[in-house]
Amino acid sequence: MKKTIAICSMLISFFAFGQEQSGSKQFWENLKKHCGKSYEGVVTEGADNDAFRNKKLVMHVRNCDENIIRIPFFVGDDKSRTWVLTYKDNRIQLKHDHRLEDGSEDKVTQYGGTTTNSGTPALQFFPADQQTTDLIPYAASNVWWITIDETSFTYNLRRIGSDRLFTVKFDLTKTVATPSAPWGWND
């Protein structure tokens, strides 16, 4: 009987305390370390005529709640974009919140997807969801992914079945001045 109790106690300890955090939870915690900080980025993959090239690109990990992280992405003076990451049930959802200068929602907004597995501490994939397919039919084959490590954060888009590829890489080793509020936000 004592042996059975000891084994049960060990199993409870293992399952309650011995399990490591999932890849998505570790990724989430790694990203939260940057809350309040801003970083400059460069386009490393994309068309030569991409509207992002030759403009200052800044991400600001502006708002970190327990289950939502909002990251405005500024392209020059354009403050219309915010990446909204939501952590729920060991998965992460990525949505693109697009606003007009008056703060109202753009007609193409809230597209993105949810991870299909827990991913890794450094990488999360977001295949296009049904809302994206309904809103932007040609984006039904989009896959976004985000990487994060000690020195960089990348935001990536690949449209499967096409040559569409976009990557912007942010240098996490040096912060930059925090931009003013994105469109639709109040400081």
UniProtKB/TrEMBL annotation:
Residues 1-18 form the signal peptide. Keywords: Signal. This is Secreted protein. It comes from Flavobacterium weaverense.
